[in-house]
Model the fold of this input.
Amino acid sequence: MAAWLDRVRERALRVSDIREQSQHQQQSALPNLAKVLGVWQLTFLGLGSIIGAGIYVLVGFTAHDVAGPGVILSYVIAGIAAMISALCYAEYSVGFPVAGGAFAYTSSTFGELIAWTCGWSMSLQTTLSSSAVSRGFSSYLSILWIGGVARSGPAQETLTIPLGPVTLDPIAFVLIIILTIILSIGIRESARFNMVVCLVNISCIIFVICSGLPVIDFRNLDPFLPFGVKGVFSASSIVFFSFIGFDYIANAAEEAKNPSRDLPLSIIGSLSVASLLYVLMSVTMVTLQKYTDIDIRSPFSSAFVSHGNTVTAYIVSCGALCGIVTSTMTGLLSQTRLLTVLGRQRFLPPILSHVYHKTSTPLVATWVTGIISGFLALSIDIAVLAEAVSAGCLYVFFLVNLGVLVRNTCIHPHKRTKEVEGSLSKQIQLITYACVSWICISSALLSISFTLDMNTLLLIGIALSWVASVTILHLHCSKKHAHDPAESPSSTSGIARKGDFKVPLFPWTPAFGVLSTTHLLCSLSWVTLVQFLIYMLLGVILYIVFGSHRIEQFEKHSQTSSVSGVELHSLLPHRAHPESSHS
Done:
């Protein structure tokens, strides 16, 4: 028993670099994913993921119940927080241009167990998000078909089928199956389809903004902060999830033509465009109507109908339908690439990593994802688990931000060498680990203190200690860079080269990322956090009982096959090269 626990503990802390992750693909002896995505396809993949139907609904709810006209500031704050995480994703994606995104990143920094919890959380996020989003398709479709917008909003006229305590949504099921077929055809065709639908959605958004210009009334902005500053921050924690989706680009990194250039551009570019559109839409909403008069079910449709503009109300429905299609499809795409990587590394059955040679797509993973998501969308109202999905997403973002902080300041025990040990004293290493640890702890304490209205002096003291820790790391990194300017902290775990994208204002940027994601996590309800912890505990049990054993057996088999191949080659007679025989 003790020996088994020691093996599990050793595997849990084992990190894998880009070479090891590439070897998993080579050892599988399966075709590679096709490298066909350029910067435009990747950018629209991000835009399709980020800009969903929520842009037409969430701004109304947060303005009416949480922040008032101050929701404009909420979107700005949430956009900045999302951009910090996006910058960290961009740096990681350059060093690790493989499918799997944050799973691959955390595997190289924190070890196998943390990487598995990250992948486990990503699976929850992408699968349930795709199912939940697709269930809104029938509501907006009913507006165009039945014409419900002029009466009482999309929630009143749907195409669902009540069946006792369950409400079936066959439209959502059909949508997911159709999108699964498109994804099965090929990534190039899927990217083209996503780009077309995404352009229609963006055109609808621009049309809505322009239609609101003649009727906006800036008197509706008074009072600007009816719920105070806390209302602004509370709303920012809600609308933050509207910016989720740029991380899907990282999951498709293996299919990028030029990942070191295209991935940072597409991640930052898609989030920048989405942030601008979100802010403009929020300004349009709170100037069209007084925040107390906003209909939280269909804010834009109802606002334009109140001004006698029913045409724009139907345009809103068209844009929402397009947003649902792109959000659902990109979520399914992200999940299939994640399953492919988990299958390669034997966290899950290896059949999931099979890539069909004619289309260069993981067909098994694609259809497993499509069928599971389709039946969830058909029969289950997943709104109950929506906050748990948000907790999982924030956990992944927290790990990515912390990972960039760790890999550029600390040395993982499994990556230490005599040369590295000699360059840094043990005291400096301990101080570095202590600073990184206190940044995480103080971020949580700051968030809890702010939420519970604790003593102001205590809040200031914790904030100053947080700043001191980041400052010490900043001085440590400056001294380290001055000692060896050519040193690349990521070179031990990735393929970062001189001139590749690096997070600006390090270590302040990832430290603020840790603070923002921790604050948003602490803003969730206790019920949500307990649900998430139970889900994560289940994932850890699966890793200990199933995953770690399968991975170890696979690696032993791979090493045996490699050794046997070398021995067999040494026994073969040596043949001179044809050219050398002529000489």
